[in-house]
Amino acid sequence: MTMSLTPRSVVLIFFLALVFILPLIGTAEEGSSSHLEEVLRNHGLPAGLFPQSVKSFKLDRMGHLEVHLDRPCLAQYETAVFFDTIIKANLSFGQLKVLEGMSREELFLWLPVKDIIVTDQTSGLIIIDIGFALKRLSFSRFDEPRACRSHHGLGFRMDGRKGIGFGYGGGHSDQR
Ligand SMILES: *[C@@H]1O[C@H](CO)[C@@H](O)[C@H](O)[C@H]1NC(C)=O
Predict the structure, then answer these.
(1) Cα(40)–Cα(91) distance, rounded to whole angstroms?
(2) Where does the secretion signal sit in this chain (predicted)?
């Protein structure tokens, strides 16, 4: 039996190949925690923004970053930082816009981290936007990924921007 490749079947094979190959192109990078450190460095950000317990991450071409941990946990930087099992963010050079999954303790409140920015590589500072305030912190504090322990003391769930504590209403206009 011979199989002849008619023009029609060539076209069919071409389209089948597209269907199977296209989904693979969407995900540019996928990897482990050490690879994530490299990705952060290449974006001008400190390598230790995420804890040691990172299991995997996905980063697509649009800069959508999704970081997976084994479980929610707390890491101690200059203050306690809460990481949910999945952290979603938009990554671009010098900036990590956190969409959900990261909060920090500030004056006994848990505030969702919204934005992590390095405006000037030479300043040695990173800026963390927690809604009503910008924290300027030393770059070196985030050089190394920290250990992250499970959060037995926290009996509540925090959902990124909708984190508990301070209901950020986009300014002071709603105060009376
Ligand atoms: C993150 O990226 C998506 C798609 O590119 C965009 O729609 C969204 O507004 C971005 N979020 C922030 C907070 O910039």
Answers:
(1) 9
(2) 1-28
Indicate whether residue 97 lines ligand 1 (CB < 6 A).
yes
**Which of 58, 97, 168 has the most ligand 1 atoms within 8 A of CB, as the residue to mutate?**
97
Query: Long-range contacts of range 24-27, CB-CB < 8 Å, 24 or more positions apart?
Result: 26/60, 26/61, 27/58, 27/60
52 CB less than 6 Å from ligand 1? no
> Tens of pLDDT along 129-161?
998 889 999 998 999 999 999 876 554 455 444
- pLDDT, one tens digit per residue, over 56-103 is 999 999 999 999 999 999 999 989 999 999 999 999 999 999 999 999
For residue 138, the CA-to-ligand 1 centroid distance in Å is 27
Place of tokens 């490299």: 38
Indicate whether residue 62 lines ligand 1 (CB < 6 A): yes
Instruction: Report the predicted TM-score, pTM, of the whole model to 2 decimal places.
Output: 0.71
